[in-house]
Amino acid sequence: MAIFLDDNSKIIVQGITGGEGTKHTKRMLASGAQVVGGVNARKAGTSVDFDGTVLPVFASVEEAMNETGANVTVGFVPPAFTKDSVIEAIDAQIPLAVVITEGVPVHDSAAFWAYAQGKSTRIVGPNCPGVISPGKSNAGIIPADITKAGRIGLVSKSGTLTYQMMFELRDFGFSTCVGIGGDPIIGTTHIDCLEAFQNDPETDAIVMIGEIGGDAEERAAAYIKANVTKPVVGYVAGFTAPEGKTMGHAGAIVSGSSGTAQAKKEALEAAGVKVGKTPSETARLMREIIEGTAG
To answer: Which segments within the chain are labelled E, that is strand?
Structure first.
């Protein structure tokens, strides 16, 4: 059992013939993921050889799904064309669309997010590292060799901190790790992942990584207080950030006390979440919970 992605996941890659698509398709295949084809309308009917694994290239997501039974798409499409590629995936009713592309215009993200409402496609991203269920499947750019399968769920705005947390807790392992991305408008949220982990019988505890700016972490705290019974530990990136500054991730804007790391930490702690001041301290808090030594 895992959330969003498991060993039955069949992955296609939109943009499979581009530089990033080629590189990361090869990495997904090497990790054992079941990649079954790709999409590039201009190269439809051709194939790509990945160290002996030959994958067909299709004209559309719909055609790829019909021919391969794919139920996941991973997008490595340039920002200018990302909106159209995601809408194509939604129209094809693929269950999961992971949008890796960085630099997607916010109004484009808003457009495909709105278009997806009420339809059957879950969007993860954009500007995210993807989703991995270690030992089962890997959709995106998350390294597959830094952790193992286990019973911790991880949801994170930061790609780099996703990797660090996976490595720090590698002796326990993870059911699924979801990098949701740090853009102002994203598909799957902290709350969506918290709900899925709460309902997953093979996830025992949850790590949630946020960052300064916006109110997503405060809303997640309210959700945890009302709905989550499993232990949650958290980390909020940006404790040392100066107030009133726009930081690296798009949309991470701090205004007064709203959106600061301290305000988010307090909201999470009020909901019973243990919050670390550093990623390593956060990993230690989770380790204590799993080992049963938490006070």
So the answer is: 11-14, 35-39, 47-50, 53-58, 72-75, 96-99, 122-124, 130-133, 137-140, 149-156, 174-179, 205-211, 232-237, 274-276
